[in-house]
Amino acid sequence: MNYPYRSKILDQLGVRSWINARNWSTVIGGDWIDDRVLDAMNEVAKTFVDMHELFEKADKRVAQLCRVDDAHITAGCGAAIETVVAGCMAGDDYGKWMKLPDTEGMKNEVVMPRGHYIGYTPQWRSSGAKLVEYGEAGTLKSFQRELDSAITDKTCCLSYTVSYNIVPRGMIPVEEVIEAGKRHSIPVVIDAASDLPPVANLHKYTDMGADIVCVSGGKAIKAPNNTGILLGKGKGAEIIKAVRDYTFPHYGWGRGHKISKEQIVGLVVALEIFIKEGDSLYEKQMKTAEFLVKELSGIPDVDVDIIPNDETFHEHTFVPHVPRVRVEWDAGKLGLTAREVDEAMAREDPPIYLRNIHYSNYYTNKEWRLIDTFFLRDGEEKIVAERMKRVITRKF
What we know:
396 residues; seven-stranded mixed beta sheet; alpha/beta; 12 strands; Aspartate Aminotransferase, domain 2; three-stranded antiparallel beta sheet; Aspartate Aminotransferase, domain 1; globular
């Protein structure tokens, strides 16, 4: 098939080039990179630079763009979490940084809501910290007293995860955690890796009073997938400065979080593009969703609708503003499971990834898949619709 986004080098390796109707999962490559970003990365690849100077100037530019006091570019959002927790523990103390991940004698406890323990939680303790959980997943009850009782003289920070992976029922309000941090003079660190768009979320939580926010560069921003950002205000800016002063390109524990000059420049350029153009993408994505609904509607025993993920109808409290198409069917009537749909969508060239994360209708007998519109490029929506129609009607 003459598919314009098929990679020749992947063909040589025997690896398939996929259509991404799933979203920005790292396991499928994260994102595709704009040519303007690639051009900047290729240009800087031909020269040499003082990495300390590059970090200083690039971080300053990111801080300006995101309306915070300081920022730091990292090797992914996971590295952002690991290094900022290290900064909360070691501060501006060279000796402590050189001891990591041995944190004996330091304030080394990260206090986290129990319902926020997800697959990425190990990053909070990778620098040698210990997790202290509080609250009950699924209910608020007396979480304020539980939070206060979890804080001790060993607490280095309060963590909060802004993600569609956390338990939505009884979710502890982020405002309450920020207030507790101020009351106890303890930094509040927020993992908001995938909470974009809208663009305003880049400074939403620091405007609310959070000290530091960790953001992925390799999702909606469309920077290289192994980039991330630390964004800080107030004492958060002081912690970020310590991270910059004691991690890569310096020696010690943080050396392992190496990031190249190409990635740093790519992140800055991609961020500038995202801030200028990011919110304007929604209208086109909605038109893509409407096209998909039109093409897939009318199939017997199949329900198709749009989840706009705007302020009126969204899958989860924390979900990016990206419209998705929901396709649901009765597996008994159609004789087709969701897994069989996945296999059929992946069988032909180009293979297609669908989204398989769902937050409602847990107790129905319906099978379902979502079609995410964020990374669908011109023409790909037609391939997805045609393939999906054949698969659902078992004409494959």
